[in-house]
C-alpha cells in the first residue's frame, strides 16, 4: 500500500484536532509509524504505553486512518520497539518519525512575565500574579477543556464574551491557575491594563478596612477603575452582608462599562447558601464552567509536563504509577512528583519504579485503605440529602433511585466487588439492575453536566 506513506501525516492532523495539543503531544507524537503491507505499524516505547494506547486511543486512530479514504481501510498494529535512528531510514520509509519518549522533547519554558503590579493606592496592597500560571503551563484534558476554552476566550476579548466568567470545582483542581492565566495573558498583551487578582477573603478585609477608616470613596475609586478583576473562592462572601452589598455595586459598574470579572468557587452559584439572590442571579449573566478532577491520562500528562519543566526525564511507567495512585487532585499529584524528584536527587538515583514506590510509600499506605460500600452509601446519601436506608429500599421515585444508581456505579468503580455482591449490598437487587445502573450513570456522565459534576465531586470526596 504505497499510498499509505501519507496516511500517518493525515492521522496526526486528525488526532491533534480531536485530542487537543497536550494529549496529542504526550500520547500520539511519540508513536513512530512504519508502513506495512496492509496498513501501518505503530511503534511504541514500552508495554504499558502500548496497553494504554490500545485501550484509549486505538479506536480513534483507526477512525482517523479510515478517514484517509484508502480502500480497504488501513489496518493499524501496535508494536513495542525502539524507534529507528532519525538519520538512518529514508524519509519515505516512515510516514512520521517522532521522538520515542514523551519526555524527550525540551520543555517549553513558561513565558517569563513580569509580575503584574496593579497600582492601587495606599490602602490596597499590590497583588502579584504568579508568572508560572499561564495557559501554556496548564495541561488540558476532558476535565478542564471547556473551562480553558472559555478562559482563553475571555482573555482574548475581556469584557466582551462572557461577563462574568464563573469557574467552579473542587480543591486543587487548577481554578487559581486558570484565572491567573487570564490575568497573565491580558497583562502580556496590554501591560497598561489595570488587573487585580484577589482572594475573596482579602476583598472582605478591604471592605472592612474601608469601613473602619471611612475610606469608601477611595475604595470605590480603586476597585471601580479596574479593567480586569479576578476573585478567587467567592464562597467566602457568605455571611458578609456589607461585602456582598459593595460587591454588588462594583459588579454592576464593571459589567456596565465592559470591564471583565472572573470569579471562582467550590460550587455553582446557586448552591452557595447565604449568597444574596441578586448576586447569584447576576453571576449567571455570563458563563459558568466546571473544572472536574482529571482523568488518568490527564494526570499522567500533568506529571510528564511538570517533570519536563523541571528538566527531569520522567519515564512513562513511573508517571503511570504515580497517576494511578494519586487521584484526588492536581496539587497532591504535584506534591507526589516533588517527593519522587527530591528522593531521586537526595539518593542520587535515577527515577525508577522502585524509587518512586519507596519515595511514596507513606502516601500509598494511607491511600490504599479500602473504600467500603457502606462508606459510599453514606457519602452519597449525605450528598443528596436522602436516608441511608433508601440505598436498600424498594422506592423508585427519581430523587431516590438516581442517587442509588450513582452509589452503585461508584461502588463498581471504587471497590473490587462483583455485580451480584453490589446487588446484595443494595437491598438484594439483581446483578442486571446493578449493570443497568452503571450504564445509566455512565451515559449521564457523557450527556448531563450536572450529574457528571456530582459524580466527579463524590469520587473526589471518597478518594480523599
Ligand atoms: N491542568 C493543570 N495543568 C498543570 N498544572 C495544574 C493543572 N491544574 C492544576 N495545576 C496545578 O495544581 C496546583 C493547584 O492548582 P490551583 O491552586 O490553581 O487549584 P485551585 O482549584 O485554585 O485550588 P483551591 O480550591 O485549593 O484554591 C497548582 O500548582 C497548579 O499549577
TrEMBL record:
Main localisation: cytoplasm
Stretch list, region Domain II: 88-127
Region Domain I, interacts with DnaA modulators, residue ranges: 1-88
Record: residues binding ATP: 172, 174-176
This protein's GO CC annotations: cytoplasm; plasma membrane
Region annotation Domain IV, binds dsDNA: where it falls in the sequence: 345-464
Keyword field contains Cytoplasm: yes
Free-text domain note: Domain I is involved in oligomerization and binding regulators, domain II is flexibile and of varying length in different bacteria, domain III forms the AAA+ region, while domain IV binds dsDNA.
Family: Belongs to the DnaA family.
Task performed by this protein: Plays an essential role in the initiation and regulation of chromosomal replication. ATP-DnaA binds to the origin of replication (oriC) to initiate formation of the DNA replication initiation complex once per cell cycle. Binds the DnaA box (a 9 base pair repeat at the origin) and separates the double-stranded (ds)DNA. Forms a right-handed helical filament on oriC DNA; dsDNA binds to the exterior of the filament while single-stranded (ss)DNA is stabiized in the filament's interior.
Name this protein carries in UniProt: Chromosomal replication initiator protein DnaA
Annotated organism of origin: Andreprevotia lacus DSM 23236
Amino acid at each position: 500500500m504505497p499510498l499509505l506513506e501519507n496516511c500517518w501525516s493525515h492521522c496526526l492532523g486528525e488526532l491533534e484536532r480531536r485530542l487537543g495539543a497536550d494529549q496529542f503531544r504526550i500520547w500520539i507524537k511519540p508513536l513512530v509509524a512504519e508502513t506495512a503491507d496492509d496498513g501501518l505499524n505503530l511503534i511504541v516505547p514500552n508495554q504499558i504505553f502500548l496497553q494504554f494506547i490500545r485501550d484509549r486511543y486505538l479506536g480513534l486512530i483507526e477512525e482517523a486512518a479510515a478517514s484517509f479514504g484508502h480502500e480497504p481501510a488501513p489496518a493499524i498494529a501496535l508494536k513495542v520497539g525502539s524507534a529507528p535512528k532519525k538519520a538512518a531510514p529514508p524519509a519515505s520509509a516512515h510516514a512520521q518519525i517522532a521522538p520515542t519518549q514523551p519526555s524527550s522533547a525540551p520543555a517549553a519554558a513558561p513565558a517569563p512575565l513580569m509580575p503584574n503590579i496593579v497600582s492601587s493606592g495606599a490602602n490596597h496592597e499590590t497583588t502579584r500574579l504568579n508568572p508560572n500560571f499561564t495557559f501554556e503551563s496548564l495541561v488540558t484534558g476532558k476535565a478542564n477543556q471547556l473551562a480553558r476554552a472559555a478562559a482563553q476566550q475571555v482573555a482574548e476579548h475581556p469584557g466582551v464574551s462572557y461577563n462574568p466568567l464563573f469557574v467552579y470545582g473542587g480543591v486543587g483542581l487548577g481554578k487559581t491557575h486558570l484565572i491567573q492565566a487570564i490575568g497573565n495573558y491580558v497583562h502580556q498583551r496590554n501591560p497598561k491594563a489595570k488587573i487585580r487578582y484577589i482572594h475573596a477573603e482579602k476583598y472582605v478585609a478591604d471592605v472592612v478596612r474601608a469601613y473602619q477608616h471611612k475610606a469608601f470613596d477611595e475604595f470605590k475609586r480603586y476597585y471601580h477603575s479596574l479593567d480586569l478583576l479576578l476573585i478567587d473562592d467567592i464562597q467566602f462572601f457568605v455571611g458578609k452582608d456589607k461585602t456582598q452589598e459593595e460587591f454588588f455595586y462594583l459588579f454592576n459598574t464593571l459589567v456596565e462599562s465592559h470591564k471583565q470579572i472572573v470569579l471562582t468557587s467550590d460550587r455553582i452559584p446557586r448552591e452557595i447558601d447565604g449568597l444574596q439572590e441578586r448576586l447569584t442571579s447576576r453571576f449567571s449573566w455570563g458563563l459558568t464552567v466546571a473544572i472536574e478532577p482529571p482523568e488518568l491520562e490527564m494526570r499522567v500528562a500533568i506529571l510528564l509536563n511538570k517533570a519536563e519543566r523541571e528538566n527531569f526525564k520522567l519515564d512513562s511507567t513511573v508517571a503511570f504509577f504515580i497517576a494511578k495512585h494519586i487521584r484526588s487532585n492536581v496539587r497532591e499529584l504535584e506534591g507526589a512528583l516533588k517527593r519522587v524528584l527530591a528522593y531521586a536527587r537526595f539518593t542520587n538515583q535515577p527515577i525508577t519504579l522502585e524509587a518512586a514506590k519507596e519515595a511514596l510509600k507513606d502516601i500509598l499506605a494511607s491511600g490504599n485503605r479500602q473504600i467500603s460500600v457502606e462508606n459510599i452509601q453514606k457519602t452519597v446519601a449525605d450528598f443528596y440529602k436522602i436516608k441511608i436506608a433508601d440505598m436498600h429500599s424498594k422506592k423508585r421515585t427519581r430523587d431516590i433511585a438516581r442517587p442509588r444508581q450513582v452509589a452503585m456505579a461508584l461502588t463498581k468503580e471504587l471497590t473490587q466487588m462483583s455485580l451480584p455482591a453490589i446487588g446484595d449490598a443494595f437491598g438484594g437487587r439483581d446483578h442486571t439492575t446493578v449493570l443497568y445502573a452503571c450504564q445509566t450513570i455512565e451515559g449521564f456522565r457523557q450527556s448531563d453536566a450536572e450529574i457528571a459534576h456530582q459524580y466527579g465531586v463524590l469520587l473526589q470526596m471518597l478518594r480523599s
